[in-house]
Amino acid sequence: MEAFFRTMAFPARAVFKETTMIGLGFRRDFAEEFRSKVLSRYADKVACETVFQDMDSFVPIEYGEVVSKREKPWGTGHAILVVKDVVNEPFAAINADDFYGSDAFVQMAAHLKKESLAGDYSMVGYRLANTLSDHGSVNRGICVTDEQGRLERIFEGLKIERKEGRVYHHADGVAEELDEDCKVSMNFWGFHPDILDFLSEDFPSFIEETKYDPRSEYFIPFVVNDMMGQGKANVTVLPTSASWLGVTYQADREIVVEALAKMSKEDFVRIDKQAVLDFAVACMEAGVSHFQLLASVAISPQSKSFYLRTKGELVEEL
For residues 156 and 142, is the Cβ–Cβ distance under 8 A? Predict the structure, then answer.
């Protein structure tokens, strides 16, 4: 199983094992810094490779002039296409600048470990309420599924916002209420490698159709939608309890930073305090008469230091 990260992202950790982590989408002159500061953190855990999303990658030579006039990268579909020569197994693809939450990775990893056939794809579906911003409206891909949880279509929910406890989007200037529990796509996909063959055949057609638009983008959701329409793909929507975090508005940054810090602290309490307490209780119930804990100096439940306070609370509760 291979995990593809459009540049890099949160954990392969325990959920993606025997994984290749592929980082791409950055400038070549940034490659060494990326390898030393990012990929080096994972090198002893998973195999890491870099693939460059060059403007001319997988572009037929006759479109050289089109490439020379491009004003931005080709988009997410092209970003996935450029890994064609290194990916041979089912893989996951995400945006590098989003935080997807650990449960999303757990769900995707479990799904990718199953036997799959060509055209069997998956997508993590987030609860709409878990992706909204407190600082303005957002656009989201709303998922419509059948009774088996397979994706039937995605429609674009525009200017989605919460007002007076309800969630609305605006279609053609008219506000329509949405179910805040409906599933939305945040671009966390699971693919069979056959999609790479489809992309390599389809991308030149996209170039031809958009060659006079230097800012056109080859978006992976549109590609998947076309494949579904042609009967070449089935997409299973994987529900997740995770909350998605991203910076849509500048004011979102502080919320995201605080949320990530809170997650780190919660993980620390769960591992360094609660797990020890649970183990101690299990020992006591099993008749263990002596339990010894090696703690730290200067610990106190009243300490201003989070670390020392947590350790102090642990000892006190023991």
Answer: yes
